[in-house]
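Entry:
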Amino acid sequence: MLYSDGRYQSHDLDFILSDGSTRRAVDEAMASVGFVREGDRYVNPHTEFFVEFPRGPLAIGDDLDVRPVRLNLAGGYTLALSATDACRDRLAAFYHWSDRQSLQAAIDIARRQPVNLTTIRRWSKKEGALDRFDEFRSALGTRQPSRPRQRNRRAGP
């Protein structure tokens, strides 16, 4: 996974299409790079990874106000979840399906990247999972990278 320094690695790539592409157009685009559709996923015999296009909108749990960040890559860029949202995504799997591997992935992300624990706690409360957030926070301990402190700027004199 992008934010866990390789400690957690998924074998799928999920993309939410926002331009109204048809299944046929996606099939053709994926075929042009060697992937064929098998059910809801696209596979390529030359890679262990598969690609899925889950139905949008982009959401984490019940939160529909997810704003991707721009990641610059060699030759271009992509939009992806922020570290905080990637952590919330893994916690959603833990909260709703008791997926302990996802809890560990969330811990790995938070130990390696600055994440906004206040945002995660607020979201966890809305998801009805404060007890599970407390488990995450306890397991995280004090190993979260420090965030640069931002000063509040006030308008006026």
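The helical segments are 23-31, 83-97, 100-112, 117-126, 130-140.
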